[in-house]
Amino acid sequence: MLQQYTLLLAHGAGAGVESDFMKSILLKLNNAGLETLPFEFPYMKIMSQTGKRRPPDRMPKLIKAFHEELQHYQAKYPNTKIIVGGKSMGGRVASLLSAQLEQDNKNTISGCICLGFPFHPPKKLEKYRGAHLEKIKTFTLILQGDRDIMGCKEEVEKYKLADSISIKYITDGDHSFKPRVRSGHTLEGNISMSSELIINFVNSLSQQVLQK
Length: 212
Prior knowledge:
Elements (H helix, E strand, L loop, with lengths): L4 E6 L9 H12 L3 E5 L2 H9 L8 H18 L4 E7 L1 H15 L7 E5 L24 E6 L7 H4 L8 E6 L16 H25 L1
Parallel strand pairs: 1-2, 1-3, 3-4, 4-5, 5-6
């Protein structure tokens, strides 16, 4: 089942594909049999080349870059089912791309995976970023640390989200799924849990399509 799919996974706003989080989740998923490829936004490539920090591009440019990567991969491997996803900002871009393609009746994405969705900036609950998630039709998995400062469990459970979205909470996890020492959980354990949840989600996609 997993061999049918490829996951294109984008990084977050401030740390690229070489971050510990990205390397850990990529390793876990590929070892589990899900081909998972990192996608690096153009602004981050420039940062890597120059060594100078710069802010992310505006959202339309980020979506365009991810869309181009999606089209490139689909043209090269037309028989592969593609899942888009990302860490934090990368997941937000992936979900916005999915919603945009749905609106244009051009959606060829099999699923979307968001790792720590940034529902709002830290301490700015009024700046909600999840409006498009109310109507999204693409099967979507959101993994959220239950004490994420950009959308903790208590906050997220109050949001109106589409039936196509499945939310799983990472125990005592922060925005990068790191738990507190006193919780008795570990980051490695939470990354492993996240990988298992992603694999289960991907394995369920074909069945969900049949039931749709």
